[in-house]
Design brief:
The structure holds three protein chains of three kinds. Chain B is of the alpha+beta class. Chain B is built from five helices and six strands; from the N terminus they run αααββββββαα. The longest helix of chain B has 26 residues. The two termini of chain C are 13 Å apart. In chain C, α5 packs antiparallel against α6. The chains are: A mainly alpha, B alpha+beta, C mainly alpha.
């Protein structure tokens, strides 16, 4: 990695190597972010419902 | 027999039936599942000139000539036993070279020459860095084409 | 182990500890794997730098197959033993497997264009992997098509089990029929046909993907359990008059069975 330009050029295949890594990152990272957001939302919703029920008792 | 065992039995039976059916279907359609024919298979099959087929094999060493009919290329595809002459006009993939696997799509002309409309390169299952290849060549353990002939051999 | 974890309450306790551990390890292993794949690994003697696509393509393909096997086994357990957690596991894993399959197809296409000369060909390997992708999508659609989650789960489980026949077809397609796709390099009889300097990043990336799957599976299963509990609470609050002391039947069924 002595030359950043050569590293980015990927031996002339930059147009294939970088999009491949980009797609993998977008798909898996996107699913991870979505799953985590939905998990947080489910925890908050459950807490809200349980509090509501506690108040009603 | 409990309900669980009953369900397990139905599941096992279903899977066995499904597996059997799949094997039958696949063996019935075997001829349509191959991606290409080898030059030897092409010889045994009577091909009409207008039928589009794919043939695969190795690009024979020293058979590639460029500049045929202007900017076309000509080469021979071999499977070791038989070979077919191919003419093609267009861009070749980066991996295309003599001794490498290739698959050409087109039709067999009446004169026995295969007129390709597209040429793909097939690579083998070997991966190694340049230095390893150089070291193998230096020590005399290198065969040109690597293991490609084995993987391109006929599967019949 | 499976039987022991099949208790939802125990699963929640164990995953509480495992999620952060799994997350940080996955991040570290993937960072190392990316550095190794993109910087340390050498270019191939024939394919040059495009061989780096292999370090995402091949682990993604392995995960696509293994996650499907996981979904199928969990579906079988759900159908036969009616374990409450098995159905949740199958349903939670499927979108992760679909994502891996998509990554495998997309990176394969980006690798095939410069090397083979085609984005896509209809050979037995590529076609069977595309079928796997559609099986995942069909399973996800079917499981979510019913208002009653247990009915959707059962219909999906049957589809998942039918799709299992595709797994050996994918694996052995390159040996049974001639294909444009090359035969297996790593998982083959007679050992890998790949230099050690390229095998190392491949194995690291595969380990990273496995950890990522474990992490996402746990997070998604926790989400599904929470959402079911919330649905039961909401139903209970709507249907039953206030000041009802006993616990909701749905929640009780869910936590008591082990």
């Amino acid at each position: 990695m002595s030359d950043p330009g050569a590293f980015l050029a990927m031996g002339g295949y930059a147009g294939f190597v970088w999009p491949a890594y980009g797609i993998a990152f977008a798909a898996l990272g996107g699913l991870a972010a979505y799953s985590w957001r939905r998990y947080r939302a489910s925890v908050l919703e459950l807490e809200r419902l349980q509090q509501q029920r506690g108040r009603r008792r | 027999m409990t309900r669980k065992q009953q369900r397990l039995g139905v599941l096992a039976l279903g899977m066995a039936a499904l597996g059997g059916a799949t094997v039958l279907v696949l063996s019935a359609f075997n001829d349509n599942l191959v991606f290409f024919y080898s030059p030897s298979e092409l010889k045994t099959k009577a091909m009409s000139a207008d039928r589009r087929v794919r043939i695969g094999g190795l690009v024979e060493a020293q058979s590639l000539s460029r500049g045929v009919d202007g900017h076309g290329v000509a080469f021979r595809i071999t499977d070791g036993a038989n070979d077919v002459s191919v003419v093609y006009q267009g861009l070749l993939p980066d991996l295309f070279r003599e001794g490498q696997g290739t698959v050409a799509e087109g039709n067999l002309r009446p004169d026995g020459v295969f007129a390709a409309s597209s040429v793909l390169a097939k690579h083998d299952e070997n991966y190694m860095p340049r230095e390893v290849v150089d070291a193998l060549k230096k020590s005399g353990h290198w065969q040109e084409g690597g293991a490609a002939p084995a993987s391109m051999a006929q599967k019949k | 182990m499976i039987n022991w974890l099949a208790n939802p309450a125990r699963f929640i306790r164990v995953s509480e500890k495992a999620v952060p551990w799994c997350g940080w390890t996955a991040a570290a292993v993937l960072a190392l794997g990316l550095f190794w794949s993109l910087v340390l690994a050498p270019p191939d003697y024939q394919q040059g730098d495009t061989v780096r696509i292999m370090y995402v393509h091949v682990p993604a393909a392995w995960m696509a197959l293994s996650v499907y096997l996981f979904v199928a086994v969990a579906s079988a357990v759900a159908l036969v033993w009616r374990h409450p957690l098995a159905e949740v596991a199958a349903r939670s894993a499927a979108p992760v497997g679909a994502a891996f399959t998509f990554v495998c197809l997309a990176t394969g296409s980006l690798w095939g264009r410069p090397m083979w000369g085609a984005w896509w060909v209809w050979d037995a390997r590529l076609t069977s992997v595309l079928v796997l992708f559609f099986l995942y999508l069909g399973y996800i659609a079917l499981v979510n098509a019913f208002d009653d989650p247990s009915r959707g789960g059962r219909a999906g489980a049957v589809l998942a089990l039918v799709g299992v026949v595709n797994l050996p077809i994918i694996k052995f397609s390159v040996d049974w029929w001639n294909t444009l796709h090359q035969p297996a390099s790593v998982m083959r009889i007679g050992g890998p046909r790949i230099a050690v300097s390229m095998l190392v990043p491949l194995v690291i990336m595969a380990a990273g993907f496995m950890l990522l799957f474990a992490l996402l599976l746990m997070v998604r299963m926790r989400t599904a359990l929470n959402e079911r509990k919330a649905m039961a609470l909401r139903l209970n609050a709507g249907a039953v008059a206030p000041r009802q002391p006993e616990p909701e039947p749905a929640v009780a069924a869910h936590t008591a069975i082990s």
